[in-house]
Design a protein that fits this description.
CATH class: Alpha Beta
Radius of gyration: 14 Å
Shape: globular
Structural class: alpha+beta
Number of domains: 1
């Protein structure tokens, strides 16, 4: 993702619990969800699979889209995911290696 781009995204758990967000660094945000760095809803429900995202050049547009998605009924949000990702695959699956996680865990234990 290039500098100055913003992303509205949807994460899901294996049971398809959904979490909607916005970020300027999708890779970093998804990685933090996978590590469950922050306590709260996404960590509690293991929402760590990226199932949908849209990029925007303008932060306000991304924030507006996030708000729109958060106001939708769950069924409508799920239908949006299924349009482009009917298998609910983790779109970030190939972004990280086991070594990425090992480095973080090593630093955490220091």
């Amino acid at each position: 993702m290039s500098e100055g781009s913003y992303v509205a995204y949807i994460l899901a758990s294996s049971s398809r619990t959904l979490s909607v967000g916005v970020t300027g660094d999708l890779r970093k945000r998804v990685f933090s969800h996978k590590l469950q760095v922050h306590e709260g809803f996404t960590a509690q429900d293991s929402c760590d699979r990226l199932v949908w995202y849209e990029s925007y050049a303008d932060a306000a547009q991304a924030l507006d889209r996030e708000q729109q998605l958060k106001e939708w009924p769950r069924e409508k949000t799920a239908a949006l995911v299924e349009e482009s990702n009917p298998e609910w695959l983790d779109l970030s699956q190939k972004w990280f290696t086991d070594a990425d996680f090992e480095v973080v865990l090593e630093h955490a234990s220091l």
